[in-house]
Amino acid sequence: MREILDIQKKLLPDLMDIMKKRYSILHHILISGVVGRRTLASSLDMTERVLRGEVDFLKEHGLLESDASGMKITESGRQLLEDMLPIIKIAFGLTDLEESIAKAYGLSQVIVVPGDTDTSVFTKKELGRAGAAALRKYVAKGDIIAVTGGSTMAQIANNLTISSSMKGNWFVPARGGLGESVDMQANTIASIMAKKTGGKYRLLHVPDHLGEEAYQTLIQDPQIQEVVDAVRSCRIVVHGIGDAMVMARRRKVDAETTRSLQDDGALAEAFGYYFDRQGNVVHKMPTVGLRLEDLQRTEVVIGVAGGKSKGEAIASVLRHGQEDVLVTDEAAALEIMKHV
Amino acid sequence: MREILDIQKKLLPDLMDIMKKRYSILHHILISGVVGRRTLASSLDMTERVLRGEVDFLKEHGLLESDASGMKITESGRQLLEDMLPIIKIAFGLTDLEESIAKAYGLSQVIVVPGDTDTSVFTKKELGRAGAAALRKYVAKGDIIAVTGGSTMAQIANNLTISSSMKGNWFVPARGGLGESVDMQANTIASIMAKKTGGKYRLLHVPDHLGEEAYQTLIQDPQIQEVVDAVRSCRIVVHGIGDAMVMARRRKVDAETTRSLQDDGALAEAFGYYFDRQGNVVHKMPTVGLRLEDLQRTEVVIGVAGGKSKGEAIASVLRHGQEDVLVTDEAAALEIMKHV
DNA sequence: CAGTGATGGACGTTTTATGTCCCGGGTATA
DNA sequence: TATACCCGGGACATAAAACGTCCATCACTG
User: Fold this and answer.
1) pTM for this structure?
2) Cα separation, A144 vs A161, whole angstroms
3) In this structure, is the CB of residue A51 within 7 Å of any atom belonging to strand D?
4) Is residue B325 within 8 Å of B303, Cβ to Cβ?
5) Which DSSP string corresponds to B104-165?
6) Per CB distance under 8 Å, which residues of A are interface residues toward B?
7) Structure confidence by residue, pLDDT tens digits, B293-336
C-alpha cells in the first residue's frame, strides 16, 4: 500500500497534488454539511473559480450534489472519503510535515522522504535521490555550487546524472580540509559531482591542523585565493548537517576544544561551524572557504540530512535562519517538529 | 493494493491513463536500450511533441537521461519499472479487457469494474455506480431515456444523483409489463430514476398475459400511444441483459414457449427480446414499447450486466450489434472474451 | 567528408484553466 | 411581509499550458 503511493509520487507527483486538493474539498464539505461555493473557497484558501472547476468535476462523478441551498456530499462521496482515509494518511503525512516545517522555519521548500536514515540504508539512498532532485531543480546554467562532505552528500553525488542544465557548472568544496576521511570529504564530493553532471570543479587543498602562521601564508597564495573567491561568490550551497559531538569525534578535535564545545552547548555542525540549540554559532573550524556572512549573498542554501538522531541538530541549524531548502527524512522531520 | 487503485480512479479518472503512458515510455526505453525521440514516438504511436513533454518530465525526475546518441533509462528508472510491475499488471488488466471488447464488438465504450457480480454484492453495487456514471456521461438536456427492469437497473437507479444536466429529462420504460416483480420492473425503475435526478417520467401500464384482442385495443388507446411514441423516439436506452432461461422462469413463461425457446437456442434476453448464440432474435415478449428497429435511430444504447454466468449471454447480445456502450464486470468480461 | 539520426531551442496556434462579474432564486431574519 | 444575504450557474475576457512544426547543431558512421 505504501509502496504504490511512493511509486505514484515518483511517476505522478502532480496527480497526487490534485488528489489531495479534491480530497480536501470533499472532506471539508463532509464536515460542513451544507456549504456554499464562496464560503468554501475562502476557508480552503482557493480562488472561487478553481474551486468551481473541482466542484464541477466532483459533481459529475456523483460525489457531491448541489441545490439552491449549497453543496453537500453524496453517499458515494462519503463512502469514498472513508475508503481514502488510510491512503491520505500515508500519502500526505509527509506533505503536511513538509509544509509545517517550511512554515515554522521560513523555508521556501522542504522535502521529506519516508523512513529513517538511521535504521534503513534505503532511506539514505532515497535522501540522496531527493537531494539530487532538489539540486536539479534549483540549479541554473553557469552556477557555482559549493558542497560539503559527509556520507549524505556522497549519496547525492551518486544520484546525480548528466544533464544539460548542469553541464559547465562549477563544483567547489565549501570549506577547506575539515579532517574527514578522503572519500567523504568535500573535495572528493565536488569532483564526483562534477564528473557525474558533466560540470567542472576546483579543489581546496588545505592540510588539517594548520598553525596560525602557515594558515596566513596559505590564504595569501594566489591559487588558493582564486578558489576561495569562487566559493564565496557561489549561487548555491548544498551541505549536510551533523551532530556536533559526533562530528567533533570524527574530525579528531582535541580534548580541550571538545570540552569547550560541550560547555557552550554545541549541538549541530554544518560546513565547519558549530551551533547551539538556539542556532547561535559557538565555534568554527580553522580553515578557509565559505564564511557564514557569505551565505547571505548566496541565493539557494540547501541542507540535506536525515535520521531521528539528527532531528535536534537539524532544528538548531534551521533556527540559525540561513537555510532556504531542507531535504530530510520522516524520522528527522518528526523530531524537528518537536523543537519548533 | 487493488482497492487503492480503484479508489484513486474515482478521484482521478485519468490517473491510470497517465500512469500507463509514462510506464509505456519508460518500459520502451528500457527495452530499446538507447532510442531517439522520433523513433520512440512512432513506435508508441504518439506525436513527437507530446512524447517530448513526458520525456522532459521523466528526465527532470531522474528516471531517464539523454545525450547526443539518444535517451536511455537511469538506474532509478529501471528500479521504478521493476517496482511498478505488480501495479501495472492489475491496473492494465481491466483497461486491456475494455479495449479488447470494444474492438471485438465495435462498441464506442466499454467499462469493466473489478470483481464478479455473481459472488460479490459489492461488485453489483459498483456495477450500478459505473452504469450511473456512464449514463451521466452520455445524457444531454431534454433527452428521453428508455430503461428496462432488473436488479442491475435498480442498482443504477440507486446511484443516480440530482444533477442539473438531467433535470427535466424524461424517463420511460422501454417496454410494457414483462412479468417481473414490482420493485424490479421497468416502470418502477423509470420513476425512481426520475425522482433521483430531478427528471420526469411516464409509465406504460400494460397487464401481463394479454389476449390478442385486448392487446389491439390497448395499443389504440391515446394515452398509451403517447407514451409509446415517446419511447420509440428516445435518444438513450439503458438496459440490462439476462440469461434467457433464467428470465423465462422469472417471468413465468408458459411451458410451451419455454420449450420453443430452448429448441431455438435462446441464450440471452434484453428488453423483452430473446437472442441465440449468434445474436439472432428468436422470440419476443408480447407487449408494447421499444422495438428492435427503433434501436437503429437511438443514438446511445447502454447495456449493463455482470457476473460470470451472464458472460455468454452478454456476448450474444453484443453480437446482435446494436450496443454502443457496455458496462460489465471483470468476470463477465473474461467470459465475453472467450466468445469473440 | 557527406549523410543520418539525435537533442534542444523556438514560435505560432489551439486548447484549457483562471479571475471576475452578474443574474435570478431561495432563505433566514428583522 | 419586506429585505438583505448567500446560493448556484452562466458568461466572458485573459492568462497559461499544451501542442504541432520546423530548424540549428552535434556526434557518429560508412
Assistant:
1) 0.74
2) 17
3) no
4) yes
5) HHT-SEEEEESS-TTT-HHHHHHHHHHHHHHHHHH--TT-EEEE--SHHHHHHHHH----GG
6) 1, 3-5, 7-8, 10-13, 15, 18-19, 22-23, 59-63, 65, 67, 74, 76, 80, 83-84, 87, 129, 132-133, 136-137, 159, 161-163
7) 999 999 999 999 999 999 999 999 999 999 999 999 999 999 99
